[in-house]
Amino acid sequence: MTIPPQSDFTIHNLPFGIFSTNDDPPPRPGIAIGEYVLDLQAAHKMGLFSELTFDKKSLHQPTLNHFISQGRPVWRALRQRVQQLLTTTDRAQAAQVEKCLVAQSMATMHLPVAIGDYTDFYSSEEHATNVGKMFRDPVNALLPNWKHLPVAYHGRASSICVSGTNFHRPKGQIRPNDAEPPLFSPTRSLDFELEMAAIIGQSNALGEPVTTTEAEDHIFGFVLFNDWSARDVQRWEYVPLGPFLAKNFFSSMSPWIVTLDALEPFRVPGPLQDPAVLSYLQCSGNHHFDVSLEVGLTPAGGQETVISRANFKHLYWNVVQQLAHHTVNGCNLQVGDVLASGTISGATPDSFGSMLELTWGGKNPLTLPDGSERKFILDGDTVTMRAVAERGDIRVGFGEVRNRVLPTM
After folding, report:
1. Separation between Cα atoms, residue 138 and residue 223, nearest integer Å
2. Where are the domains of the chain?
3. Contact status, residue 192 vs residue 401, Cβ threshold 8 Å
4. CA separation for the pair 199, 394 (Å, rounded)
5. CB 72: neighbour CB atoms within 10 A?
6. What's 118-406's CATH class?
7. For residue range 128-171, what is the model confidence (pLDDT) as tens digits?
8. Dihedrals φ, ψ of 296, to 5°?
9. pLDDT mean over 212-233
């Protein structure tokens, strides 16, 4: 099998997902390789996993939750076995593997996990600073607690959809200016948020915190995540309890979960944390990942323009700190839960991870190649996010998360 050199899904990656086909409709687990999906259920039926010890019934489920719940040794063993099968020189075995391959063009992708709960963090210092400058204080942009704890809020899990799902412009209360009362209206400030999200792979019991040392054993992998936002609704409603209708209408994630093992070559140090964090948030080793991110905007009938390029490594708070903080009070996370990073922005204007920042609240519109301007996202626009990590001849990609905005219902 030939894998295109710029494929996201190389032998170094092997992300997990859930797919179906017209010929075989029930959703089932698969692993992406090049332009194909390795059907794990079919491979199991052929006896290709007979040497592995785990509950094979998990390969006959419409989500990955059962498989994931069996723990990191199982995830790792299956991924390593698939690497062996895809590189085997045994012709008979290679022929068996080939029978288990499905063209991605023939596959329908589904949410890879059943999501019980969703938490959205606020972990980019650059993003938090930009928002603080716009809405609070140009000098002291960060709130006093921001560098002491990973700020977060609980989001709505039921409205998270897989890439390729289109959605209608949401409505809510907005207040265009302070001189007038609020009104009920479709949002006039629809925005994307460029994020990554961790998928929880191991539960913790109620009352039992997870330490930063233990945290990575509780993380199955990462997906690309777009936390769509209605900024004008958010501006009016967020005091005193934070976002509600501005965020719960729709979020989207990429269909393939890239494992921590695949991201191992891309670990990098994080930024210096000053002031020093409390002991339960302290951690050793590198828990940031050098993953390049980009956002493309395509108007209806037009061509895509890349409007932002950022990097996952720039977050102030890393994923093990997020998880440790989430559970330090005894909160019990469950397999399939989603922990999103919050908007990822870099230090330069072309690396900002939202339209709010790219246009500075709409004051500096973007001009697209067709001459049209964007302060925020319009009906008919498609937003596409991509992520890839590269080092030498190792390339690990996340695919994409893509959504088109439909008019208000």
Report:
1. 33
2. 16-110, 118-406
3. no
4. 23
5. 18
6. alpha beta
7. 999 999 988 899 999 999 999 999 999 999 999 999 999 999 99
8. -110, 140
9. 98
Do β-strands 190-191 and 229-230 pair in parallel, antiparallel, or remain unpaired?
Answer: antiparallel
Residue where the block lists tokens 């895509």: 304
Output b/e per residue, 332-341; b: 16+ Cβ within 10 A.
ebebbbbbbb
Query: What pTM was estimated for this model as a whole?
Result: 0.97
Distance CA 281, CA 288 (A): 15
Q: Are 58 and 16 within 8 A, CB to CB?
A: no
Give the span between the Cα atoms of 192 and 10, in whole angstroms.
28
Looking at residue 34, the DSSP 8-state letter turns out to be T
| Cα Rg, the chain, nearest whole Å | 21
Active site residues: 127
Q: In which residue are the tokens 């204080």 written?
A: 137
* CB atoms closer than 10 angstroms to residue 142: 17
Amino acid at 80: Q
Give the residue carrying structure tokens 């208000």: 408
CA–chain centroid gap for 215, Å, is: 18
Instruction: Residue count of the chain, please give it.
Output: 409
| Distance, CA of 375 to CA of 32 (rounded, Å) | 37
Taking a C-beta distance cutoff of 8 angstroms, is the pair 363, 341 a contact?
no
**Any residues with CB less than 8 A from the CB of 363 and at least 6 apart, and which?**
none
**Distance (Å, rounded) from C-alpha 248 to C-alpha 193?**
13
| Tens-place pLDDT, residues 74-100 | 999 999 999 999 999 999 999 999 999
Three-state helix/strand/coil letters over 267-330: EECCCCCCCCCCHHHCCCCCCEECCEEEEEEECCCCCCEEEEEEEHHHCCCCHHHHHHHHHCCC
Those residues whose C-beta lies under 8 Å from the C-beta of residue 317, and which sit 6 or more positions away, are: 121, 123, 150
Rounded to whole angstroms, the Cα distance separating 283 from 268 reads 14
Contact assessment for residue 344 and residue 310, using Cβ atoms and an 8 Å cutoff = yes
The encoded tokens of residue 81 equal 């076995």
Instruction: Rounding to the nearest 10 degrees, give the CA dihedral for residues 13, 17, 23, 24.
Output: 130
Q: What CATH code would you report for 16-110?
A: 2.30.30.230
Tokens in use for 352? 């900002």
